[in-house]
Write a structure and sequence with these properties.
The complex is a heterodimer of chains A (about 425) and B (about 250). With about 425 residues, chain A is of the alpha/beta class. In chain A, about 25% of the residues lie in helices and about 40% in strands. Chain A folds into 2 domains: about 10-270, no CATH class; about 375-430, no CATH class. Chain A contains 8 helices and 20 strands. Chain A has a 10-stranded mixed sheet, with helices on one face. In chain A, strands 3, 4, 6, 7, 9, 11, 13, 15, 17 and 19 form a 10-stranded mixed sheet that branches. At the A-B interface, helix 6 and helix 7 of A face helix 2, strand 7 and helix 3 of B. The structure holds adenosine-5'-diphosphate and magnesium ion.
Chain lengths: ~425, ~250
C-alpha cells in the first residue's frame, strides 16, 4: 500500500512525510542505516498515525490527539537540572541529543561499555536495530525512521554493577520533536539497575518518541525504571522492548506523572525458560492528562513467571488507560502469569479504561487477571480522621498507602525510596 | 462536659436514633447497654462525626462547643476518641507512622509542638508493653492481620497515647478472652481521671465488673429507656432486656 491509496493524510502525517524527505536529503545517515529508516518509515506511512479503530490504540486516538508533528530541533536545554542523581552514573540527553559534558562516561564501573548512539548510528551495522522491537507498531516504526541519539549500553558477562545508570532526558524546546533510541545488552549473569527519567519545561509543547531495545542474556538481572515526568504540555510516546534469556530476573517499573498525553508501551518477550518477570507501574494524573500504559508479555517458552501490577490515581478530568496482554504459546506449559490493575478515581469526571487480556494456548498454566476501580474508601478515611488526622492529610496517607503496595514490590531500596518520594512530591504539588 | 439533647439521626432514610438525651460530666463513666440493633454503635458514630448519618433534630455539645459543626478530626482534637467495635484494617499505613501522625496532628490542632521521635518511640513502647501489644504488631500495617483481640488492644493503645478527655468504647469486650479483658480493662482504668469521661457501650455485664460505671443506661430502639446505678447492669444480666424493650414498644 502506498500513501496515495489512503484517505488524505492528516496535517501531522503530512508533516512527518516532509520531515522524512528532508532527513533523507540531508545525507546524514549511512546507506545501511538509511535503508533501515526507509523500511520503517514505509511501514509507518502505509498505516499512518494509529486511531481508535486500530485495536491497540483504541483508547488513545493519536490521529486526533496529535494535530501536528513537530520537527527535530537542535538546542541545548540551558536549565540547571535540580533533581537528585541517585548516586548513579548519569547520562543526559537534551532535546534528544546526548550532552557529553553532562554525562559521566568517565566514572563508569569496570565491565560496562556505554557509547553515544549518534556514534553507534554512524558505525553500527543495521542489524543491531529492530532485533528486539519487532512489533509492527506505528510509533516504534517512527522512532526507527527518525532515531537520533541515545545510548548503547553493554554490561559484560558476569559483571554486577553496584551503581545505577541514570539516563535523563530533558526537553525544553517548544514545538520540537525528539527520537531517542537506546540499545541495551545485559550479559550472561550480569546485573544492572537502569533508570530513565523524562523531564521537561512546563511551558514547552514538545513531542518525544523514545525507544529502548533491551536484551538480557541467560541468568542476567535487570531493574529498568522509567520515570515519565515530562512537562505539562508534552506528548510522550515511549516504548520499551525487552528480550529475555533463561533464568533471567527482569523488573520493569513505570512511574507516570508527566505530559498532557502519554503512551508507554512495554513489550516483553520470554525466550528462555525459568525467568521471572515483574512489570509494575504507578500513574498519577490530574487536570486533563491522558496517559496510556500498554503492555504485552509474551510467554513464548515454558516455565516463566510474570507479575503485572499497575495502579493509578486519577484526579480532575484525567484519563488513565491500561491495556495488558499476556500471551502463552501452545508449548509454554507451567507458565505463571498474574495481572492486577487497580485504580483510584478521585472525581466524577476522571476516567479509567482498563483492558486486561489473556491469550492462552497452553493447558497446564496458572494465569489470572483482575482489576478494581473505586474512590478512596470512606470508612478508612473516617478511621484516620477520627484519630485527629485532617481530611486532606488522611486522603494523602491513603493514596500513598494505595500506591506503596506496588512500589514496595521492587527489590531495591534506593528505587523504592525514590518512587515514594516522587509520589509525595506529586501529592504536595497537587495540594498547592 | 458532654450534652446530648433530643438527638435524632437517620441512615438511608431510617430513623435509628429517636430522641437521645444524655449528659456526661467530667470524671464520670457511663455505661450504655441495650439489645443488638438498638442504636449503640450508631450513637458512637454520630458522636464522632461519621458522615453517613443525617441529624434531623437535636444537639451535641462538648465543653460548650457545638460538635455537629465539626468534622471527625476536629472532634478528635476537641478530645473525643472512639474505640471502634470493628476496627478496620488499613493496608499500606504502617502502625507507627499512623500513631505518630495522629498524635502530632492533635498536638498541632491544640497549638503544641510535634513530639520528638525518640520521646514518641519511648512512649509507644511503654504503653504497648502494658497492653501486650508486641513490637511485631507495631511493625505491621495498621490492624492488618491482627486477631479480634489484638485489634481491640491496639485501639486502647491508641486511646492511651492520644489521651482524649472523652472516651467512647464500643463493645470493646467483644471477642476478648478473660485475660485480654483484664489487660484491656486495666488499660482503660489507668486512664480514669477526674477530667476524663467515658461512655462504655457493652452488651454484657462482665466488662462492668472491671470498669465500674457511675451510671448505666439502657438504649432501646434509639432511645434511652432506663437509667440507673451500676446495679442496673446486674439486673439486666439476670432478666435480659425484655422488660425494657417491651415496656417502651407497647
Ligand atoms: N448504614 C446503615 N444502613 C441501614 N441501616 C443501618 C445502617 N447502620 C445501622 N443500621 C441499622 O441501625 C440499627 C442500629 O444499628 P447499630 O447502631 O449498629 O446497633 P447496635 O450497635 O446497638 O447493635 C440496626 O437496625 C441496623 O440495622
Ligand atoms: Mg454495635
Amino acid at each position: 500500500m502506498n500513501a496515495e491509496a489512503r484517505v488524505q493524510g492528516t496535517q501531522a502525517e503530512q508533516g512527518l512525510i516532509e520531515q522524512f524527505a528532508a532527513l533523507k536529503a540531508s545525507g546524514e545517515s549511512s546507506a545501511d542505516i538509511l535503508a533501515v529508516r526507509e523500511k520503517a518509515f514505509g511501514a509507518f506511512e502505509a498505516a499512518g498515525l494509529p486511531h481508535r479503530r486500530v485495536e491497540d490504540w483504541h483508547y488513545t486516538d493519536l490521529r486526533s490527539k496529535m494535530r501536528t508533528a513537530f520537527p527535530i530541533k537542535e538546542a541545548k536545554s540551558g536549565g540547571v537540572l535540580n533533581i537528585e542523581r541517585l548516586n548513579a552514573c548519569v547520562f543526559t540527553l537534551e532535546n534528544g541529543r546526548l550532552n557529553e559534558a553532562l554525562s559521566s562516561f568517565g566514572d563508569l564501573e569496570q565491565g560496562v561499555i556505554v557509547r553515544p548512539m549518534s556514534k553507534a548510528l554512524a558505525a553500527q551495522t543495521p542489524e543491531a536495530f529492530g532485533t528486539v522491537a519487532t512489533q509492527d507498531d506505528a510509533l516504534v516504526n517512527l522512532n526507527t525512521a527518525f532515531m537520533q541519539d541515545g545510548l548503547a549500553i553493554r554490561v559484560k558477562d558476569g559483571v554486577k554493577l553496584t551503581k545505577p545508570i541514570h539516563i535523563i532526558h530533558i526537553n525544553s524546546e517548544g514545538e520540537s520533536a525528539s527520537y531517542p533510541r537506546n540499545l541495551v545488552e545485559i550479559g550472561e549473569g550480569a546485573e544492572a539497575v537502569i533508570v530513565e527519567r523524562y523531564v521537561g519545561d512546563n511551558d514547552a509543547a514538545y513531542q518525544i518518541n523514545a525507544l529502548s531495545e533491551i536484551k538480557v542474556a541467560d541468568k542476567g538481572s535487570l531493574i529498568w525504571v522509567k520515570l515519565q515526568q515530562d512537562g505539562e504540555q508534552a506528548q510522550h510516546i515511549g516504548s520499551t522492548a525487552v528480550h529475555l534469556g533463561e533464568e533471567v530476573e527482569f523488573d520493569h517499573f513505570t512511574l507516570n506523572t508527566g505530559s498532557q498525553l502519554s503512551r508507554s508501551q512495554v513489550f516483553v518477550a520470554c525466550a528462555g525458560e525459568n525467568s521471572k518477570i515483574g512489570c509494575r507501574g504507578v500513574s498519577m494524573l490530574s487536570g486533563k492528562q491522558h496517559s496510556d500504559i500498554t503492555l504485552l508479555v509474551d510467554h513464548a517458552v515454558q516455565a516463566c513467571e510474570s507479575r503485572e501490577f499497575y495502579k493509578s490515581v486519577v484526579d480532575d478530568n484525567a484519563h488513565s488507560v491500561f491495556q495488558g496482554k499476556i500471551i502463552v504459546a501452545p508449548h509454554a506449559q507451567k507458565t505463571d502469569g498474574q495481572m492486577m490493575v487497580q485504580s483510584l478515581v478521585l472525581t466524577d469526571d476522571a476516567q479509567v479504561s482498563v483492558k486486561p487480556e489473556l491469550e492462552i494456548f497452553a493447558d497446564d498454566v496458572q494465569c489470572a487477571h483482575g482489576s478494581t476501580t473505586g474512590d478512596i474508601d470512606e470508612d478508612l478515611l473516617f478511621y484516620l480522621r477520627a484519630r485527629g488526622i485532617p481530611e486532606a492529610q488522611a486522603r494523602q496517607m491513603l493514596i500513598i498507602a494505595f500506591l506503596s503496595e506496588v512500589i514496595e514490590e521492587i527489590d531495591n531500596e534506593r528505587v523504592v525510596t525514590l518512587l515514594e518520594d516522587l509520589v509525595k512530591e506529586w501529592l504536595e504539588a497537587k495540594k498547592g | 462536659m458532654l450534652e446530648i439533647k433530643n438527638l435524632h439521626a437517620k441512615v438511608d432514610g431510617n430513623e435509628i436514633l429517636r430522641g437521645v438525651n444524655l449528659t456526661v460530666k467530667p470524671g464520670e463513666i457511663h455505661a450504655i447497654m441495650g439489645p443488638n440493633g438498638s442504636g449503640k454503635s450508631t450513637l458512637s458514630y454520630v458522636l464522632s462525626g461519621k458522615e453517613d448519618y443525617e441529624i434531623t433534630e437535636g444537639s451535641i455539645t462538648y465543653n460548650g462547643e457545638d460538635m455537629l459543626e465539626l468534622g471527625p478530626d476536629e472532634r478528635a482534637a476537641a478530645g473525643m476518641f472512639l474505640a471502634f467495635q470493628y476496627p478496620i484494617e488499613i493496608p499500606g499505613v504502617a502502625t507507627m507512622t499512623f500513631l505518630k501522625t495522629a498524635l502530632n496532628a492533635q498536638r498541632k490542632a491544640r497549638g503544641l509542638e510535634e513530639m520528638p521521635t525518640p520521646e514518641f518511640m519511648k512512649l509507644v513502647r511503654e504503653k504497648a508493653a502494658d497492653l501486650n501489644v508486641t513490637p511485631e504488631m507495631l511493625r505491621r500495617p495498621l490492624n492488618v492481620g491482627f486477631s479480634g483481640g489484638e485489634k481491640k488492644r491496639a485501639e486502647i493503645l491508641q486511646m492511651s497515647l492520644l489521651e482524649p478527655t472523652l472516651c467512647i468504647l464500643d463493645e470493646t469486650d467483644s471477642g476478648l478472652d478473660i485475660d485480654a479483658l483484664r489487660i484491656v480493662s486495666e488499660g482503660v482504668n489507668k486512664l480514669r481521671s477526674p477530667e476524663r469521661s467515658m461512655i462504655v457501650i457493652t452488651h454484657y455485664q462482665r466488662l462492668l465488673d472491671h470498669i465500674v460505671p457511675d451510671v448505666v443506661h439502657v438504649l432501646s430502639k434509639g432511645r434511652i429507656v432506663k437509667t440507673g446505678g451500676k446495679e442496673l447492669a446486674l439486673e439486666l444480666e439476670k432478666n435480659g432486656y425484655a422488660d425494657f424493650v417491651d415496656e417502651k414498644a407497647a
